[in-house]
């Protein structure tokens, strides 16, 4: 390709035609004549301009112009297949073959490239089975583009970015002004659609096992003659659901570890990494009397509490360090879940006979509960605003003080003043949420709704313990009423979950929260190069020079 320009007045003509080998000499002579004319300024404007009219054989090529960017692509006879044409991308971010943000005009979300979230060792094993072959320039460009997207997936997303880009229960819906890395209109693989919030189902069922054990063994509810068979059936159901959810999520860890990392950096879902171990401790506490001894082995407590303790070191360290994930920035109602693990661990420690470790965990949990409670109540100006649709997990407010009261009673073998204080706090918060029914209505069913059940059950168990210490008609009626409400809620959600999972098959929609971009890209933003075709090449270069000089002047003013 030869680009020759004639300076005639203010017109700039650009010749993009290919120079044939047999005409190179004539073309060189003509260029020398033009340079001679340019050396004589007096004669340049007096002599008429001659337009070159060179007859060339017709050359077969196809031209495509991107309607979004104005770039054109010429496909000649260089390709092996003459009929092959390069189709320009129609994405809003595509520059017709020119790289944008390291993607080289290839958007994985248009192709449904889910491999960007796959575990890297799995991709390496798959690529090793593919036979070696010569790659064309386009294939190398595709590989470079995928590598750039993989780098974008590997990098952690800032905590504030999740609040800016997401909305809905558990921050699981993408705002209309945001774009994602994967296609929205295509059904994703099942494992990518399986969130860690599914362990909330296990929390609700396992806590129900403890409730029915208390109803069967408590002297306050002895007149109901509740059989222990209900406790045994619910306990088995909770164990089965936990095993199914745990195995499924382990497959997701093995195949889509990059998606697991995205969930770990999510300000809401990071707290649910404590949920599997809390469920295991619930099952140990609520085990039927015939299947479990009176005193459990301390090894059970060590195995279940160790992961929660290490997660607390990580999460609480981020809160304390004051970095990008400080508490005032990432605090949300589900932050109580990482605190509840300490109280549940204290209850299990008392059950295995280790009272001192139980006191240690209780003190840690209570200190951080006060910090989280004050932060969520105060809502500092520097913190991110909670979305209005995050209402279901507001019930987490009542779970933490109720668990603290149960833990204190288990450690000291009495429901004394401090235990009652924590219980009264949870009871007041429970009533403050009940009188606001609009706070929990108008949402599409999702797994996040199971966040209702676990706190309601915890308050019901604490009410039964309080009724044992203060027996009266009011306390007994309150215990029965709260137990009935929590059980009814669990039954309704369990039936709804089965219907959405097996009948309507809408329980697991695309998990859009893990596919957000690291930086915001406005859909209404027009590409910088779009107006390039409206100007001549020289004016385009001049405009770029002015833009750069303006940036330098702004930088110098800022330095001053």
Automatic annotation (TrEMBL):
Query: What compartments host this protein?
Result: Cell membrane; Endomembrane system
The record's listing under Pfam families reads: SLAC1
CC per GO annotation = endomembrane system; plasma membrane
Which residues does the annotated region (Disordered) include? 22-67, 75-94
What's an example of a GO molecular-function annotation for this chain?
Answer: voltage-gated monoatomic anion channel activity
Record-stated family: Belongs to the SLAC1 S-type anion channel family.
Report the protein name in the record.
Guard cell S-type anion channel SLAC1
């Amino acid at each position: 390709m030869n680009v020759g320009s004639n300076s005639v007045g203010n017109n700039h003509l650009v010749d993009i035609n290919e120079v044939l080998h047999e005409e190179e000499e004539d073309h060189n002579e003509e260029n020398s004549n033009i340079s001679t004319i340019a050396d004589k300024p007096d004669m340049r404007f007096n002599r008429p301009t001659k337009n070159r009219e060179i007859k060339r054989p017709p050359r077969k090529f196809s031209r495509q112009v991107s309607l979004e960017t104005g770039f054109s692509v010429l496909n000649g006879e260089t390709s092996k297949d003459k009929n092959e044409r390069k189709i320009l991308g129609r994405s809003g971010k595509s520059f017709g073959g020119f790289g944008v943000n390291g993607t080289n005009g290839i958007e994985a979300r248009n192709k449904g490239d889910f491999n960007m979230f796959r575990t890297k060792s799995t991709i390496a094993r798959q690529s090793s089975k593919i036979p070696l072959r010569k790659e064309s320039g386009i294939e190398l460009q595709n590989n470079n583009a995928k590598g750039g997207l993989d780098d974008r997936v590997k990098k952690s997303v800032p905590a504030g970015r999740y609040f800016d880009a997401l909305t809905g229960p558990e921050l699981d819906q993408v705002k209309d002004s945001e774009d994602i890395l994967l296609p929205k209109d295509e059904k994703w693989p099942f494992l990518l659609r399986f969130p860690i919030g599914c362990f909330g189902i296990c929390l609700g069922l396992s806590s129900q096992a403890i409730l029915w054990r208390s109803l069967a063994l408590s002297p306050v509810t002895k007149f109901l003659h509740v059989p222990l068979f209900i406790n045994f059936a619910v306990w088995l159901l909770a164990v089965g659901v936990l095993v199914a959810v745990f195995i499924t999520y382990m497959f997701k860890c093995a195949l889509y570890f990059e998606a697991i990392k995205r969930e770990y950096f999510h300000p809401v879902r990071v707290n649910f990494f404590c949920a599997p171990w809390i469920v295991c401790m619930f099952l140990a506490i609520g085990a039927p009397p015939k299947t479990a001894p009176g005193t459990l082995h301390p090894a059970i407590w060590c195995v279940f509490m160790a992961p929660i303790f290490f997660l607390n070191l990580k999460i609480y360290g981020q809160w304390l360090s004051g970095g990008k994930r400080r508490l005032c920035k990432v605090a949300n109602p589900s932050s109580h879940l990482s605190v509840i693990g300490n109280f549940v661990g204290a209850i299990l420690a008392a059950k295995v006979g280790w009272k001192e470790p139980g006191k240690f965990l209780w003190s840690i949990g209570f200190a951080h509960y006060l910090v989280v409670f004050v932060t969520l109540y105060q809502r500092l100006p520097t913190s991110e605003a909670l979305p209005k649709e995050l209402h279901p997990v507001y019930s987490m407010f009542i779970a933490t003080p109720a668990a603290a009261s149960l833990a204190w009673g288990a450690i000291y073998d009495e429901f004394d003043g401090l235990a009652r204080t924590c219980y009264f706090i949870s009871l007041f918060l429970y009533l403050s949420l009940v009188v606001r029914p609009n706070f929990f209505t108008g949402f599409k069913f999702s797994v996040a709704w199971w966040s209702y059940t676990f706190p309601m059950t915890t308050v019901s168990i604490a009410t039964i313990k309080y009724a044992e210490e203060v027996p009266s008609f009011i306390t007994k009626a309150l215990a029965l009423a709260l137990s009935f409400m929590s059980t009814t809620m669990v039954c309704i959600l369990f039936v709804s979950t089965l219907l959405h999972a097996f009948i309507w098959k809408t329980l697991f929609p695309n998990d859009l929260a893990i596919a957000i971009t690291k930086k915001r890209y406005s859909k209404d933003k027009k590409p910088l190069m779009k107006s390039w075709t409206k100007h001549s090449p020289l004016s385009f270069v001049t405009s770029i020079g002015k833009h750069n000089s303006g940036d330098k002047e702004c930088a110098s003013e800022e330095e001053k």
